[in-house]
Automatic annotation (TrEMBL):
Name of the protein in question: alpha-1,2-Mannosidase
Main EC class the enzyme belongs to: hydrolase
GO molecular function, one term: calcium ion binding
Membrane-spanning intervals of the chain: 7-23
Co-factor requirement: Ca(2+)
Lineage summary: Eukaryota, Fungi, Dikarya, Ascomycota, Pezizomycotina
UniProt-listed Enzyme Commission number(s): 3.2.1.-
The keyword Flavoprotein appears for this protein: no
Pathway: Protein modification; protein glycosylation
Amino acid sequence: MPRIRARHVILCTAVVLWIYYFLPTDEALPSLPRYGQDSSRRGTAALARYMNDPAAVPNITAKKSSFDWSSVNFTYPPKLTPKLPAPVAERPRIQHRFKADSKAVAAIQNQRRDEVKRVFRRSWASYKRRAWMKDALKPISGDYVDQFSGWAATLVDSLDTLWLMGLRDDFYEAVEAVATIDFGHSTAPTVNTFETCIRYLGGLLAAYDLSGHHVLREKAIEVGDLLYAGFNTENGMPVDFINFQVAKKGSGLTVESRVVSASPGTITLEFSRLSQITSDDKYYAAVSQVMDVFHRGQNETKLPGMWPMFVSMSGKDVVSGYQFSIGGNADSLYEYLPKAHALLGSAEASSKKYEIMARKFMDTAMENLFFQPMIPDGYDILVSGNCDVLDDGPHLDPESEHLSCFIGGLYALGGRLFDSKEYLDAGVKLARGCAYAYRSFPTGMMPERYNMAMCPGSDRFAYCPWNQTHFDVEASKRAEYKPHLPKGFTTAKDPRYILRPEAIESVFVLWRITGDSWWREIAWEMFEAVAKATETPYANAAVLDVTVLGSEKEDYMESFWLAETLKYFYLCFADTDLISLDDFVLNTEAHPFRLVKG
Ligand SMILES: *[C@@H]1O[C@H](CO)[C@@H](O)[C@H](O)[C@H]1NC(C)=O
Ligand SMILES: *[C@@H]1O[C@H](CO)[C@@H](O)[C@H](O)[C@H]1NC(C)=O
Ligand SMILES: *[C@@H]1O[C@H](CO)[C@@H](O)[C@H](O)[C@H]1NC(C)=O
Ligand SMILES: *[C@@H]1O[C@H](CO)[C@@H](O)[C@H](O)[C@H]1NC(C)=O
């Protein structure tokens, strides 16, 4: 009875629509504006209102945390030198000199940007309704979870995205909430230094840099002083986990003997920027002690120029290990070297250090980690693998991961900072490699971790034609090989996509640096794939298997979905002056810090 069924459908649809529109607003998902309805003009008008009229900025006062971290009496006070270097007068130009888009092209980009904003607002609305002031929304159940000490990680992480999308009312509503966060109390007995630094301190600093609101500065100082208490150790190195109660007493903390190198290596930008905005050198001085250890050890490791993935901060040993990678565990240690140079300039010796470390690592990684995989369609790409240095020398394993995808953008940035075509070209090919991986899988997204077959021969950058015999040999070495994988991939060891940003991060940087519109097109392709595959009733969720269509999802939405992934997508289609790379450097959580000019 097709006709009756059709009528049923119409009736049901009408009921559903009725429910959708007439349920109380705190129950139904808001119907968010589609293309065009929420035009950029509204955002611009809101911006102008807040920028030109101080009275439009709500009067918000920060509530002091229940413990004053600046009052800790240190058993081991950190050194107070070196002093922050003076701002540099000149920096090399980073961004391409863009000309205005034609009207037709601009209209397409505006539509795309608004679509990204729509997806952001949908996730934000659900966070607001179901998980407000909690660390993260669970996007399938609509529940929430506190896994980062309970200081509203998603809220703090999203502040600058709200600002740059022009959502000023939501922004100030969030600032009012930030004003009440109590950094004197944690939901867990220990606090993770790395996550607290990149998400909370980074988020507050960037939101302050964009809006200038004093509450954000005050709260940034509170978190900064909490993290600074993690330096109350016998040898001046920071702890990986801060024991909250011991840290308050000031009796001293015990530095761990084995940590991933990214943990102590990812404080420089946040602490340097905090010193800049407070004119208090102590943060910069404390982190400088750490980076001096890395600087001294750089040429003494088993792969000179890079540091092992695991280091011992208790023994100040950053040279003994044998595993090397620019991926997870190590990534942002490397990321922060060129970026610290960008933030601090190299007017004086202590920041020249970052240029030296950056160039040296970039040369070493290029020589030992990157390779052209054997792929069926002849694209000129590079992928970053892992290198183990054994008794008989370095061994490159062609295993890569989503986390490594930031490296293309970083080499492109390095290419501009250090005037090197070689770095820039490598950056283009590395970023292309990640875009290629997205395209290869049926969902349009790349797996969290995977292997490819390297081209045979000694020149790892050289192209090679497809050789099925060679591929079969490589695939047979991998227990995880599955025949349904795209040609060229020998495993999808971890087949999830967990809403990560690194691939689109590099696409964004390449777009801004080269001005080649191919990057904007690939960004849109990636966005459509990601938005579709990750959508849930409330927001967006991690996908368990990108190698098949219709995979199950996981009830989890990392705060970096709003802080990074959607921000980078948005910026790919926005005005190229919005967060220009000549005015800002972004931390590893995509929080833009303003570059001070001397
Ligand atoms: C802002 O609020 C504080 C405390 O409520 C008050 O003391 C102050 O006068 C207000 N400032 C302005 C400009 O309204
Ligand atoms: C640090 O010492 C001063 C002076 O003895 C004291 O007033 C203050 O309460 C101490 N701070 C903490 C956090 O115990
Ligand atoms: C490490 O080697 C590079 C040259 O390859 C040099 O510029 C740098 O100063 C060296 N670092 C140290 C700490 O000696
Ligand atoms: C293809 O690879 C196999 C196995 O490595 C090798 O023996 C053969 O010579 C290669 N064929 C060509 C045409 O290069």
